[in-house]
Amino acid sequence: MLYSILLPLHSILRWVIVILAVVTIGRALYGWLGKKPWVLLDRRLSAFFITGLEIQVLLGVILYFISPVNQIALQNFAAAMGNAEQRFIAVEHVVGMILALGVAHGGRTLSRKARDSFKKHRNAALFYILAIAIILLSIPWAGRPLIRFWG
Questions:
Q1: Checking CA distances to 97, which of 7, 32, 65, 88 falls within 20 to 30 Å?
Q2: Which pLDDT score is estimated for 147?
Q3: Which three-class secondary structure string do you get for the chain?
Q4: How would residue 145 be classed by pLDDT, with cut points 50, 70 and 90?
Q5: pTM of the model
Q6: How does residue 143 score in pLDDT terms, banded at 50, 70 and 90?
Q7: Are the beta carbons of 27 and 106 closer than 8 angstroms?
């Protein structure tokens, strides 16, 4: 039951995160390259992006332990490492998303601590671009629907 609720939520939230990342990165690039001031909107977009990413990773961790597909991999981890699809879900997807969250958090921290707007925007842009690149590489695109409405 929980799986059939969390999987579609995780799937839909993926697109919210991607959209938030595009908007947040766009604002950061605009501010950095245009030498614009760091304003409340920039701070809030950054916070929404990070918070959304934290929620997504939390849902993913819960799904990691309750997913029927992942249960097979966890029961025989050595065999799962020999199967590219199971390895991707059991290891690469999880590690990539946690790494992306860490990179995004690092960017937000450096942006908040920077003394001038130029550095705030630059740090946000560079770290968030790296985070979304890791996210996009860590999403299991092949053979899966773009949005899941059921488990």
A1: 32
A2: 75
A3: CHHHHHHHHHHHHHHHHHHHHHHHHHHHHHHHHCCCCCCHHHHHHHHHHHHHHHHHHHHHHHHHHHCHHHHHHHHCHHHHHCCHHHHHHHHHHHHHHHHHHHHHHHHHHHHHHCCCHHHHHHHHHHHHHHHHHHHHHHCCCCCCCCCCCCC
A4: confident
A5: 0.91
A6: confident
A7: no
Task: Give the burial string for 18-40 (b: 16+ CB within 10 Å, else e).
Answer: eebbeebbebbbebbeeeeebee
Place of tokens 């092949």: 142
Q: 75 is written with which tokens?
A: 């029961």
Q: How many CB atoms lie within 10 A of CB 89?
A: 19
CA–CA separation, 144 and 67 (whole Å): 15
Q: What is the mean pLDDT of residues 141-151?
A: 72
Token couple for 44: 């809030």
Q: What is the pLDDT of residue 151?
A: 55
